[in-house]
Amino acid sequence: SLKKHFDIPNKIPLFPSNQSVKAVDGISFDVYKGETLGIVGESGCGKSTVARMISQIISPSDGDIKFNKQNIVELHRNELKQLRKSIQMVFQDPYSTLNPRKKIGELIEEPLVVHKIGTKKERKEKVEELLETVGINKRFYDRYPHEFSGGQRQRINIARALALNPDIIVCDEPVSALDVSIQAQVLNLLRSLQQEFNLTYIFISHDLNVVRYICDRIAVMYLGKIVEIGTYEEIYETPKHPYTKALLASIPKESPFDDIDRIPLKGNIPSPINPPSGCSFHERCPFAIEQCTKDIPELLSNEGNNHLAACHVVNNKEENK
Ligand code: SF4
Ligand code: MG
Questions:
Q1: Mean predicted confidence (pLDDT) in 184-210
Q2: CATH number of the domain that 118 lies in?
Q3: CB 157 within 8 A of CB 98
Q4: Is 181 helix (H, G, I), strand (E, B) or coil?
Q5: In the chain, how many domains are there?
Q6: Do you know which CDD domains this protein is assigned to (predicted)?
Q7: Within its chain, how far is the Cα of 140 from the centroid?
Q8: Nearest ligand (C-alpha, residue 290)
Q9: pTM of the predicted protein model
Q10: Which residues pair with 300 in a beta bridge?
Q11: Could you tell me whether strands 217-222 and 200-205 are parallel, antiparallel, or unpaired per DSSP bridges?
């Protein structure tokens, strides 16, 4: 089970010293080859931290991350370099991740140069091919990022992520900065690339409405923990956890998920420095019982399948039947 606690430096006077933020607190999940696993939650729930741990940008404080049976947390530098080819990342903001002084062709070539792949001529051919793959004319090789729209820049980022033939792409809010009409185009591109290159995606988003276009399974996170995980159908058609239901309630009315019981989300997310006792959702939950303030609910199924929820009320109810 994976943990990431950030120590708060004493220099920040807002907090007493020696406290840590439990950004991710004991989570565990599997990702299957060729699937898209969505990780959804409000900002600050720890989903980006999970993304950065999987991509080895940061290391967990505790726990294992296994990829093809290897624990990537324990890899040595050379092995890690190989692994970095297999796991690539696409970030939210296509503006900040592309160096404005470099031509887009050079930006896509960069990972190939870093990993010493191919001759100059071979790399140029590969970059041209990647540009066409993501729907950008290869004649634009010498242009600069500012000459492209937000959606095109995200395509350039995706081409860069594809350069090393990865197995997994971790997408952290890849369409959140884009207009809704452009979002659909980029999501469609990601879907067709997945089929073409047999990619596995871990798709991080705050938006259950975006995730439904692309994910096979979905994990819902709240305050550093997974509170529900299930298939697309299970999460959207028969959600169990009150927090998932509340998130679904924020999807616009005309959506096809209009007939689920909608519960409103009240109050704000509590501080991850001092999370509430018991179920960390209890202060915001309309169904909370006394047990919820004391015991941390385990992530389990009341049906004996892989649709898991961490909620006392959900899991007790079935037991008493
Ligand atoms: Fe609500 Fe209790 Fe379930 Fe937490 S455990 S979601 S507080 S009912
Ligand atoms: Mg984030």
A1: 93
A2: 3.40.50.300
A3: yes
A4: helix
A5: 1
A6: ABC_NikE_OppD_transporters
A7: 30
A8: 1
A9: 0.88
A10: 309
A11: unpaired
In this prediction, the answer to ipTM > 0.90 reads: yes
- Ligand 1, atom 8, residue with closest C-alpha: 288
| Measured distance CA(210)–CA(247) in Å, rounded | 12
Is 80 exceeded by the pLDDT of residue 19? no
The CB of 310 under 6 Å from ligand 1? The reply is no
Q: Is 198:34 a contact under the CB 8 Å cutoff?
A: yes
pLDDT of 320 over the 80 cut: no
Return the residue whose CA atom lies nearest to atom 7 of ligand 1: 282
Specify the higher pLDDT residue, 27 or 14. 27
**Closest ligand to residue 52's CA:** 2
Question: Which ligand gives the minimal distance to the CA of 280?
Answer: 1
Is pLDDT above 90 for 254? no
In angstroms, rounded to a whole number, what is the distance separating the alpha carbons of residues 247 and 41? 8
Residue 83 and residue 75 in contact, taking contact as beta carbons nearer than 8 Å: yes
CA distance 245 to 178: 26
Give residue 257's domain range.
2-319
Please tell me the distance between residue 214's alpha carbon and the centre of ligand 1 in angstroms: 28
